[in-house]
Design a protein that fits this description.
Layout: H1 9-17, E1 25-28, E2 46-49, E3 53-59, E4 62-67, E5 71-77, H2 80-90, E6 97-99, H3 103-124, H4 130-133, H5 135-154, H6 161-174, H7 181-187, H8 198-207, H9 215-237
Helix pairs in contact: 3-5, 3-6, 3-7, 3-9, 5-6, 8-9
Amino acid sequence: MVSAKSYANDSIATRLKGMEISSPLVIMQNGVGVEKPFLNLDAARIYRCVLYATSQKDGDNSYKFVPIAASPIGIVRGNQQELDIVVNELNTTAFPFISHNDITREVWKKAIINAVFNSICPLLEVDNGIFARDEKASLLAEEIVNECLVIANNIGIRLSAEEIMQQIFAISKKSDGQLISTLQDINAGRETEIDYLNLEIARIGESLTPVIKASTTQALGEMVKMKSNLRKQLVASV
């Protein structure tokens, strides 16, 4: 299982390159395109998991873990029989997993959801519950969703704003009081995964013909990146 932050994937794939991989490789990360570095591992059977869970450190040696929904796992390069085995091995009552036959759609749905949570919450320095509590925050969330959906639909991924906004509100209510991972990373002076969320979605839009702009999505992503870099500099100087 690859459960490190997605910005480490190039290094992990390089380390794995010279190894004989006999077991399936399960990428347990959110974001668009996080599996790409592993596609160069020619013989590897690769499965992607879209995570629906939050966690937060609540003490020196303890973390609060909240599963939001069953996390889907699907095939990038492999077969259904092995996927079923993988899901069966990983699935527990406390941390449920399910098999999914259209993992690309699930990847994009969750990436758009994360483009909302992982940009707005860190910039406002608030918990995940903000969208269930604040109308202006939910309107900004809807603006991001609509921008991202134009890009997703243009490349053949059919999603609706209603479906995604319903999930945003459900996650917001269920993880009220919980800090999004990006805000936790910024506070700790760590790298964030915003490059695989807002900025990757905006990059894909820029690569299309004609170009599709995701101006708000990209601007918020760039602000998160700037905030992260400033925090890292501050932590390094202490």
